[in-house]
Amino acid sequence: MTKIEKFHRPKVVVIGGGTGLPVILKGLRNKNVDITAVVTVADDGGSSGVLRNYINVVPPGDIRNVLVSMSDMPELTLDIFQYRFDSSDSFFAGHAIGNLIIAALAEMKSGVFEAVQELSKMMKVKGHVYPAANEPLVLNAEFFDGTVISGESEITSAHSKIKRVWVTPSNAEDGHQASAVAEVIEAIMDADQIVIGPGSLFTSILPNLMINNVGQAVCETQAEVIYICNIMTQLGETDAMTDADHVRILNQHLGRDFVNTILVNTKEVPEDYMDYHKWNELSKQVVHDFNGLREQNVRVISNDFLRLEDNGAFHDSKMVVSELMNRLHAASGILK
């Protein structure tokens, strides 16, 4: 790995989706780093799914949350952007205002990538927010029983063991493959650090890496690739999987051992604290397999990364970001 030159502002690319990505971005945004968030576009549930079905727009929900996490706009303005209608109107019910704005701008700018760049300026975003692709993608999964299902929400609700996933354009009649725009690939290749996760392994993280040129760039970049392992297993996705299994799945999907470092939480989640009814997608705490990680030549950083909140288990943004900065410091010898 190349050393980060003196006075160089480190470039950190964070790849993922779901609720985990904004947590890390909030912690990074006040550090002296150049942040790029690469956000999944394969979601088909909730408000995002409805908008996608109406106007075939890239699902905006994950993008909306990332924009808010990196924005310098006043809190009230961000609250309005995040506001979700609770009226009984057959169209507006359940939609977040920000989703509607992103969908409108995507139509105005003839694509979500340019729309997000325009919105980033309006929202005073610190860094860059790049949709993983400029078109909506369909997530496909093959299960160990041979069943094949398409659609992120359908895959999640199947509650069956996933063998592999891949993505296809939602309008693939012309036979073209999913690909990321040049800016995404350039960011990955120029990065000093690539952060993957935390997030749902098969439905938030791998959809990005299964875009051919994204996966290739992550394998070829000189940056350190760091995987933030989930604290809890996810029902129907990663049941009974260890942290080494997570890395093994990632490596198998890209055909090589590309994960350099993993962050794993070692603090035990109190069994009587978790509300499994409220967080019904969670199952049990991820089991550690340090020998399995070493066999894959992965550097292990273990610490108390646990944040208990609202009867759920989450990553402590401050602790995670501190370790990410330590890795940049180790690469440069000069960063604080």
From TrEMBL:
Pfam families: CofD (PF01933). This is Putative gluconeogenesis factor. One of its GO terms (cellular component) is cytoplasm. GO terms for molecular function: LPPG:FO 2-phospho-L-lactate transferase activity. CDD domains: YvcK_like. Belongs to the gluconeogenesis factor family. Keywords: Cytoplasm. It comes from Paucilactobacillus oligofermentans DSM 15707 = LMG 22743. It is found in: Cytoplasm. Required for morphogenesis under gluconeogenic growth conditions. One of its GO terms (biological process) is regulation of cell shape. The keyword Cytoplasm applies. InterPro entries: CofD, CofD-like_dom_sf, Gluconeogen_factor. Signal peptide: none annotated. Its main location: cytoplasm. The keyword Cytoplasm applies.
